[in-house]
Amino acid sequence: MSTFAQRERLLLADLLEAEGPEAPTLCEGWRTRDLAAHVVVRERRPDAAAAMLIKQLGPRLDKAMEEFAAKPYEELIQLIRTGPPRFSPFQLKQIDEASNTIEFYVHTEDVRRAQPDWTPRELDPVFQDALWSRLERAARLMGRGAPTGLVLRRPDGQTVVAHRGTPVVTVTGDPSELLLFAYGRQSAAKVELDGDKDAIAKLHETKQLGI
């Protein structure tokens, strides 16, 4: 039985292949080749990927990204499809699902929503609930850089506080859209914001949302 992470992995690989190596993405400064290299480095070079959390390892990550981005694009796509190496912790279903469901969903939308003719995906309620569950657990971490109080709300009224403070901005949307907003894709997320106008403007402009 396919997991959400496996499904999103294959969707991302197919999309990267279809768009080619030079298509734009929502990741500033990255084309599709760069994003593909990032996904592969994260899974296959943990020594370099650690720089995503430890800034002192930045040069190691930059070198690994450069090396993988120089590989044939088709090879990068195949590495994404086949997944992590045999002894990687990502091979464990629970870790893969917990770590990669959001990773692959967000990066798929990074590619899709950077294209001029993109349209929203129809996501089933079970997947939306799974994304909401992950958002509830990670909201404080993702919202730590918010310049205002930040509350995320589903259309059914369920809420989670991503950042305490005043004034408060309430962001309403489907879990998939709230997730993109909380990951710093404010301009691309289909959400509604309610609160002080200046606070909303600051929230839209900040580049510190997300992890």
TL;DR of this structure?
The protein is an alpha+beta fold and 211 residues long.
Tell me the total number of β-strands: 4
Largest sheet entry: 4 strands, mixed
Indicate the radius of gyration in whole angstroms.
17 Å
Biggest sheet: strand arrangement: 2-1-3-4
Principal-axis shape equals globular
**Overall mean pLDDT score?**
90
What is the tally of helical segments? 9
Residue windows where pLDDT falls under 50 for at least 5 positions: none
Q: Which range does the strand content fall in?
A: 5-15%
Class inferred from helices and paired strands? alpha+beta
Elements, N to C (H/E): HHHHHHHEEEHEH
Distance between the termini: 30 Å
Q: How much helicity do the residues have?
A: 40-55%
Distinctive features:
4-stranded mixed beta sheet, 9% strand, 9 helices, alpha+beta, 211 residues, 52% helix, globular, single chain
Question: How would you characterize the overall build of this protein?
Answer:
This protein is of the alpha+beta class. The chain contains nine helices and four strands; from the N terminus they run αααααααβββαβα. The chain has a four-stranded mixed sheet. The radius of gyration is 17 Å and the shape is globular. 35% of the residues are buried. The mean pLDDT is 90.
